[in-house]
Write a structure and sequence with these properties.
Elements: H1 4-21, H2 31-41, H3 45-64, H4 94-103, H5 107-118, H6 123-126, E1 134-135, E2 142-145, E3 160-163, H7 166-172, H8 188-198, H9 207-220, H10 223-230, H11 234-240, H12 247-253, H13 274-295
Antiparallel strand pairs: 1-2, 2-3
Length: 296
């Protein structure tokens, strides 16, 4: 018996294959057809490998449901046909981030960019942060990523602590509250993506985190510390991030401080009452539910 989440994942995985092979019976699809489809849809080996692996997953599910006749071999694709070379991570420059932060015209946009750029949190982690996770009064300000916030499968998530650099504290402390979620919306990254496109900057998930790891590795010079704070292994750093940025650029990255006198949010850096913030959050969630109801 499959749970709802597994069924939903299977449906999402099937979409591209339904578009291509929806006119065929499942047992008439061949592995060669799938391979051609995968290569036509993606050019990068890792993406091809993932799509082919997903098709195999669906095929095995079909076998378990007796969709394929016993006398026919199921069209499982040989995954070794697709090379899995990891791409270089997308990196933003200090000048780009400085420009984005000085143009950020909403609290959500500014906080999201700052947290991913200077703390290295993942997109799926950033949106779940709470103000009580921050320790601004410590000698070394810290961010505590609780188990339910950190990325990972249920039961295998590892909490971690991130040392907050001085420029991050300078950016977000004027907006800090004692308790409650950092973001009053369920999907803050959508607003950030729209803002970046308006600024002529293409946003992708975790791009700012990749930038942080690259610059922190050069700035701190301690691979183990950066890996511990980023929540991945030193092997990942060797593969993806080593020697991607210069020491001068890394120093400039962690010296991007706010200039509130000319900032669009200069009038909003005073603490917002908690009651007003909660009312704003409830209205945002209600608007989201209404929009989803209209779509369905």
């Amino acid at each position: 018996q499959l749970n709802k989440r597994t069924i939903r994942d299977h449906v999402n995985i099937c979409k591209s294959f339904v578009t291509k092979f929806g006119h065929q019976l499942a047992h008439t699809i061949t592995a060669e057809q799938v391979e051609r489809h995968v290569r036509a849809k993606y050019t990068h080996g890792t993406s091809q490998h993932t799509l082919a692996s997903n098709f195999n997953r669906i095929t095995r599910f079909g076998i378990s449901q007796k969709v394929y006749p016993k006398h026919l071999d199921p069209p499982l694709v040989a995954l070794e046909l697709f090379e899995r070379e990891p791409p270089d991570p997308e990196i933003a420059s200090p000048a780009q981030i400085r420009d984005l932060l000085q143009r950020a015209d909403h609290e959500i946009i500014l906080l999201f960019i700052v947290l991913e750029s200077f703390a290295g949190t993942r997109t799926c982690e950033t949106k779940k942060l709470h103000w009580e996770d921050f320790r601004f009064d410590a000698e070394q300000p810290k961010l505590w990523l609780r188990r339910k916030v950190a990325k990972g499968r249920r039961g295998n998530r590892r909490p971690r602590t991130i040392d907050l650099p001085k420029n991050l504290v300078a950016w977000i402390q004027p907006f800090a509250r004692e308790t409650g979620p950092v973001f009053a919306t369920k999907h803050p990254y959508r607003r950030v993506a729209r803002f970046m496109r308006r600024c002529g900057f293409e946003w992708s998930a975790n791009m700012l985190r990749h930038s942080y790891v690259s610059y922190a590795l050069e700035y701190l010079g301690d691979a183990a510390q950066v890996a511990r704070q980023a929540g991945h292994s030193t092997q990942v750093q060797e593969t993806h991030y080593k020697q991607l940025v210069s020491a001068e650029a890394a120093k400039e990255w962690f010296n991007i401080f706010p200039n509130w006198t000319t900032h669009p949010l200069a009038q909003e850096i005073k603490l917002v009452p908690e009651s007003e913030f909660q009312a704003k959050k409830e209205k945002t969630l209600e608007d989201y539910r209404t929009s989803r109801t209209k779509k369905t």
